[in-house]
User: Fold these one by one.
Assistant:
Number 1:
Amino acid sequence: MFKTNVGGIDRILRIVVGLALLAAFLLMPDASYRAVLLIGIVPLLTGLFSTCPLYSLVGINTCPMKG
């Protein structure tokens, strides 16, 4: 469906940052900016699925070529 354009270190960083933001969301229930931390869903999903729509629009590909 989507072309893989996120690879290696980029993918790992996206997953780690996404998880960190979501963990902060869960650990800070009284913070006034808590809803902003839900943005962590975006890097988490793009890391897990190895595809980034913004990268596709701009023409960036961090996934190494195969074969």
Note: The chain has a mean pLDDT of 92.
Number 2:
Amino acid sequence: MRELQGAALLGAVLLTGLSAGLYQGFAVAVLPGLRRAGDRTFVEGMQRINVAILNGWFLLLFAGSLLLILAAGALRLWGGGGTGTLPWIVAAAVLYLAVLVITMKYNVPLNDALHAGGLPGSAEGMARLRAEFEDAWVRWNIVRTVCNTAAFGCLAWALVRHGNGG
């Protein structure tokens, strides 16, 4: 049972760390790079990114992280062993749920609005579409990046505790 607990926890650490890294990559490279681009490049680039990211690999990170966090918590709770890791797993679950809520409540509707705006024919229309999207999306991406990174840290600490018999 201990090996299964450790495997679920390790999987949760890996997937949550990868998703934190994805959001961090957007925060420190993709969005600052696009911020320097013209309105048309920004809008078209984000529209294409928002379509491309909807794939099985992203779904694995997005949903798989939560599933493995919950599995790690359930195995720890019902599988016996020390409970020293359980508070850290629970904290990670709460933080990762915040990531999902932020994404679904803020980032996805902004993505949908950007997509619905198409590629306006005028420079003013392009600037308006960008202005309605960029600052809010960047702000919520930073918030979910912090939450996801904190969840990753909690899980990493839980894995250390697990290795020490916690």
Note: DSSP finds five helices and no strands in the chain.
Number 3:
Amino acid sequence: MIKVFIHGSGHKSSSWNEVVKNMHYNEDILCPDLSSILNGKEASYSNLYSSFIDYCNKIEGEIDLCGLSLGGILALNYAIEYPGKVKSLVLIGTPYKVPKFMFRIQNIIFRLLPKSTFKGMVFNKKDTFILGNTMKELDFSNNVQVIICPTLIICGEKDKANMKSAHFLSENIKGSEWKIIQETGHVVNEENPKELARILNDYYDGN
């Protein structure tokens, strides 16, 4: 079974390296780079999601999706629209809607940062703003209830910004499980890769 691990907006596909290294069946794991699958198109959310749909639909059979932050939003969106394609879903530090206040604060901070700061991120400064501005109205509050595949929700203990969302998702996705990873913040795959891999191995082995 092919597993697709999707990174967040502030990171690259390499952010999964340590997790993948500790997975039982890592030869079946794909880690797409979100900027690459855009194929030169503007980094709007609609373009990114459309490219993600194309990427996933080219994979034969069902897939396991595992996404962090932006990656989780893409995975969530896809699982809602393509229920027959998704065998299981893992959402890590994933908001079910974009918090407008936090978004405004983030935008102010990003505007003050030099372009060089974005070199370690998947999108440059310009594309980061384009993506963010086209995500402001995203809200899956009334859609997550339709998800039918086994779902695991994960949140780092220190990721206070997404803890409320983790509660919401666990309560509104039927039969979902959720876990808090202790002493860990938002970027779980880099901050605590071995523990995340252990949880994912247990989850996939049980499904």
Note: The mean pLDDT is 90.
